[in-house]
Amino acid sequence: MLHTRDRLIVALDVSTAAEARQIVQSIGTSISTFKVGKQLFTAEGPQIVRDLIASGRKVFLDLKFHDIPNTVAGAVRSAAELKVAMLTVHTSGGSKMLRAAVEAVSSFDARPMILGVTVLTSMSQADIDEVGVCGTLQSQVLRLADLAIQSGCGGIVASAHEAREIRRALGTGFAIVTPGVRPAGSSHGDQARVVTPAEAIDAGASHIVVGRPITAAPNPAEAAEAILREMQSSPAASF
Questions:
Q1: Quick one: angle between helices 95-104 and 69-81, nearest 10?
Q2: Distance (Å, rounded) from C-alpha 84 to C-alpha 25?
Q3: Which residue out of 35, 38, 58, 64 is catalytically annotated?
């Protein structure tokens, strides 16, 4: 069973290591896992990951690898050598790529959880129509989620809007990490499919990712604690 503090991931969507360190320090020990995405990783490189892990934090490396299987396998192997706890690959890369990613970490004692990204939470039905996807947004998410699990991924990344149907169709035994989570009253930013923390947990999410509502708050530690309390209030909090 996951402790609530391990289910909340704080997104360090900033441009410098100094900003990231300030956020981490301001939050303290109430949160164990921090997301390093393209913005911070491109600016600071792997050293920021090493520093976070050396400080006792866990890192969710969200670079969404999507390339030929051999290239993705090499990138995933390098991420595993950094000792990240979680990392993302795009499920639209296909089963060969996904299996190559899973196989790349099979020899590591501490294997990172490989998460297959389904449909970005910034995308709407109109957006997937625009890129030529046939069918509904939900059917596409389910198709890609099933592909990820069948290929050996430890979980998926999907909006909580689809999480309940994913659990109904595919069951348990894998993680569902949900971005696009905003406390009630928060700005949606560039997210199209947004839910509150409690709604995400109710829908079957194992982890939620929250950025600006915590990192831009006057008191990030208090903002994080408020979200943890909201998560604990969900009937599904004992995942």
A1: 30
A2: 19
A3: 64
Q: Is 35 a catalytic residue?
A: no
Each residue of 197-213: pLDDT tens digit? Answer: 988 999 999 999 999 99
Give the Cα-Cα-Cα angle 38, 218, 176 (nearest 5 degrees): 45
Tens of pLDDT, residue by residue over 48-99, are 999 999 999 999 999 999 999 999 999 999 999 999 999 999 999 999 999 9
Instruction: Output the six-digit token pair for 91.
Output: 């499920």
| Domains, in order of start, for the chain | 4-232 (3.20.20.70)
What is the bridge-based pairing of β-strands 58-65 and 86-90? Answer: parallel
If one counts every other C-beta atom within 10 angstroms of the C-beta of residue 221, the result is 16
Work out the number of other CB atoms within 10 angstroms of the CB of residue 93. Answer: 22
The DSSP string of 8-29 is EEEE---S-HHHHHHHHHHHTT
Q: What is the DSSP string of 159-191?
A: -HHHHHHHHHHH-SSSEEEE--B--TT---TT-
Q: How many CA atoms lie less than 13 Å away from 126 in the CB half-sphere? A: 3
Extract the tokens encoding 13. 């969507």
H-helix or E-strand containing 69? helix 69-81
The first and second tokens of residue 87, run together, are 């990392």
